[in-house]
Model the fold of this input.
Amino acid sequence: MSPERQESFNRLAWTMAGLVAALGPHFLRMQAWVSAFVIGACAWRLLAERRGWRMPPAFLRGLIAAGVTVGVMAGYSTITGLDGGTALLALMSALKLLETRTARDHAILIFIGWFLCLSAFLYAQDIATAAWVLPTVWLLAAALLRVSRHGAEGLAPRPFRTTGAMLLKAVPVALVLFFFFPRVEGSFWGAPSSERALTGLADEISPGDISELTLNDVVAFRVRFEGNPPPPSLRYWRGPVFSQFDGFSWSRGDVQSFRGAAVAYAGAPVDYTVTLEPTGQHMLFALDMVENWTPGLAGQAWDFGLRTRRPVNAVLQYEARSYPRYRAGEDIGLALRNASLRLPPNRNPRSTELALRLRGQAGSDVAFVRAVLDLFREQEFYYTLTPPGLARDSVDDFLFNTRQGFCEHFASAFTSLMRAAGIPARVVAGYQGGDWNPLGGYMIVRQSHAHAWSEIWLPGTGWRRVDPTSAVAPERVERGLEASFAGSELLPDALARGTPLLWQARMFWDNLNAQWNDGVIQFNRATQDALLSAFGFDDPDWKAFAAALGIGLGLAVALLLAWLAFEFRPRRTDPASTAYRRFTRRLARRGIEHEVGEAPRDFARRVRRLRPDLGTPALAITETYLRLRYGPAPAATDLRLLRGLVARFRP
Amino acid sequence: MRGWVRDWIRRRQGPDRDDVTLRRGRIYILPTGLGLAFGVMLVAMLLGSLNYANNLGLVLTFLLGALGFVAMHACHRNLEALVVKTAGTEPPFAGQPAVFRFALANHGRAPRFDLETTSTAGGPSGTSVAGGGEATVEIRVPTRRRGSIELERVEVATRYPYGLFRAWAVLHPDLACVVYPSPAAGAPPPPLSPSLSGGGSRRRGDDDFAGLKDYHPGDPPRHIAWKAYARAGELLVKEFSGDAETIPVFDLADAPGGDLEARLSILARWIVDASARGMTYGLRLPGDEIPPEPGESQRRRCLAAIARFEAPATDVA
Done:
């Protein structure tokens, strides 16, 4: 390959490496044809560069561009959303590769690469994404350095290293901007919409859904309590509430709205901060019964669930206050009462019959509830992670046939028995429990803590939580899944939970993630205000921001300038010359100037002539200096000697 | 606008003599087109990150912004304290480019990359100078006719690193370079018998010692009077007279043709050919005569004389 071709290939390799790294987090997220097209274009271009093939003509590129745009429209139904936009950006970079020649073309590709990095952050802001993307930014900048140089041969900077040094110098300025650049509340335009399937509780629940979710150890949210966390039996995190039963599964039903019910709170409150991982859903999780939460974030529905206006697509932090003792919704409306009693007609007939029989035997509603719980406890019902599939009439099949179930089976059966006996009831899904992280002093609630329980309404007590699972497996509520299924291979991370060291390592990593969420992702206007207050700006307004930003940037820029001045400092002249210059300066002060071009020995002779008293030291200094400068092997002792002689030379 | 800026810079800085150290006051810097595009990209990223309250997006934006800021300073620093020295010219024949040489001296520790030296008429040539090093750059200025060409303005510029900014310094060296007439192609040979009308020519040869004259580079070493050198410490050359060689004196009057430029071209051809053969020759122009000498300096003298020649008011055709 000719040197020009080799150079062109090297430039292309740099740009492409940066681009592929930037596409990295997107490859699996994009539709397969997009990823395939991008990889194909990269491969073709590298081959074309090696073999010297011609680039496709302009009309063909235009045709492909139109084709892929239509493809994105068809595949993503929009080109403006996060998914469609990212796909389009990736495809355009691939197309640009087919005509890249000049430094400008390369620069455009690198700019696209940086946009893809931003897009990766819009998808996820976790540590792994940051750890991938930040080096990618470095690689892209190095590629820009490499491709922007032209025409210079010989001495060349090392792109990666030079760029690394520049980025290091940029860090203080960037940090000041990050901390003090005023954040805006709200947004200028809509939130990024991404159609992602996220693990978590959904708006419908069928038998088997939660037991499946339990196998997932992913963090749902983390909670930091002010004061002590409530005891395990009270750690019920309320999520979606299901009021409509179709005989098999439970759903929120038609979005019917009922009057919000009054809640009477009692006892001591629990205050806490939840950092919720993206769910793609509208609900927030809070301990029963929530009284107050970060204002403006969500509204409380008639079923006491907290719902946001927009889906939670990014890590979200909120504060809440709950009262474990409460009396909720004593006053039930007729419509809500009817909705909470409705059962699908002609379904689960045996259960209905059982309910009516038990209700008849029991004297009261409370006695009936106890009788149903005793039924679960005393008859042969099994709490299992792998419940068998159920027939169409799921409650009948469970109660009279399989008798093996997970929490949602028990909750579903219990709720429909209640309804059949005329007690308003509903299924509540959420999380129960949590792993305490002693390193960070917070609680981790994972998908494996997902749980379902029942809520029944009784006159005089209002809506009350009843957890039928606790009748079958009380240790589930008190000590978690591990207690119920000790030694089960199915439990997520059975190995880690069984090995203290691994468990410690996991807690350390989780604490790091929690810190990251709190310190980086959740850094917002409130945190900024607190930070400015710490610097003495009370009640910060825009002037405080301007002052902090100005002072901070001033310091960062001063640091940068000092750093550059050090890097570009003049070469040090050799110490012998420095000492000799001090000698001539001292003589100059006495009127004996060292002429330009005057040889040191001539100068020394002139000094002796003009000031005979200085002759001997001047000659000694000159001879030592000459030996140091021009002698075959200058000794370190000579330098010390010269410095000593000059120091003692006082004309 | 451009012309106005140039005049302003020239008035501000004045002409440059000797070596020029590029100080802060004479380095200008502006973003390039790519730099402006980079700025637009940063604004878009900032708006996007703020809108979605995406802190890592903001980190990315601020990091890139700060990188651009560092690049601006690095670009400026890449020129600052660089020393530009003039390093001679190379006179061309008309039609060839005139070469002005400059030395770029870097007294700093850090290397300077991708320095472009341009003039109004010349093209770019990138060069890098290691810490404590020096590099010579050439500025080629195209010429069309004989005479003299001036280099009024030189720009030392750099886009390093990243090409987001361009820093430049303007020098006004006011250098001039002689442009020789281009030697005529297919010129008639010089007249063999020297014309007597203008005073004839001396004959020189190797036969008889005729006296001593000053040494000029190009004189045959065997003619050097070593004894005289030992005595006086001055290099002298023995001259001989004889008829082994005819010493021509090229006369404008002998060059055929009506057009003065064409005739000067013919003279240039004769001088170039004679010089290439190592001959001794002289030149006679109306109002100017260069006595015969051998060597490179004679060639330069003669070519410069015809380059600068201006026809007297009454032309002796």
Q: What stands out?
A: Confidence is low (pLDDT under 50) at residues 193-205 of chain B. Chain B has six helices and 18 strands. Helices of chain B lie at 2-13, 33-51, 55-79, 226-232, 260-276, 296-308.
